[in-house]
Amino acid sequence: MNYPLEPIAVIRTPFKEKFATPRQPGLTPSVHALIDFYPGFATPQAVRGLEGFSHLWLIFLFHQNWQKGWKPTVRPPRLGGNQRVGVYASRSPFRPNPVGLSPVKLLEIHVDKGNVSLQVEGADLIDGTPILDIKPYIPYGDSIPTARGGFAEETPKAVLEVEFSEVAREQLNQWQNETPGLEVMLRETFSLDPRPAYRRRTEDLQGYRVLFDRYEIHWKVVNEKLIVLRIDAVV
After folding, report:
1. Contacts (Cβ under 8 Å, ≥6 apart) of 14
2. How far is CA 160 from the centre of its chain?
3. Is the pTM for the entire model greater than 0.85?
4. By the 8 A CB rule, do 70 and 95 touch?
5. Domains in the chain, start-ordered, CATH in brackets?
6. Rounded to whole angstroms, how far apart are CA atoms 66 and 214?
7. 133-163 tens-digit pLDDT
């Protein structure tokens, strides 16, 4: 039996591609996102009372993996990408039903001529991700202090120091009015080392590029430091 689902909203984030998108929620608190509701779901009545909650659950679709299939075991980045666990013991986006769940902090509810959008913090979603449902985070039921985290017991920490070249520093100054807080967002995002796990285990001479917000970021890793080389605006 089929159960058709219709997205109620789409989320807008600076993360334009899978590469460099945080692997878990809450790791880049300086990055804000906007949830835009689709017509028919964007009514003030639907969010009545939501202002009383500090956090929300976002139920979303891994739309870039839709119909790509799945495997019973995966290689989680937290295990270095070289150990397999069952897909149900992971948060891999390649699942029998590609549905994800993330908690975010609710910052503001915007109401404009009957339309509604939500500004949130801490999202780990690619720009354009379809939102299937939104539920309030309820601390007494959703927080379990005695829960065990398996192989992901510890909170991920910054592993790379982030520096900016002279060119990148000049470009940051150029874009600071257009994108306030860009430097902080880049530091939080890149300090987590977005490279594939196998790249971290060997000397890495490769240069990288990633789309972030409206910019193309060029960078490389040298002696455990991530150097941002250029920050080019994307036309």
Report:
1. 31, 127, 185, 212, 213
2. 18
3. yes
4. yes
5. 9-142 (2.40.30.70), 161-233 (3.30.2310.20)
6. 25
7. 999 999 999 999 999 988 877 777 778 999 9
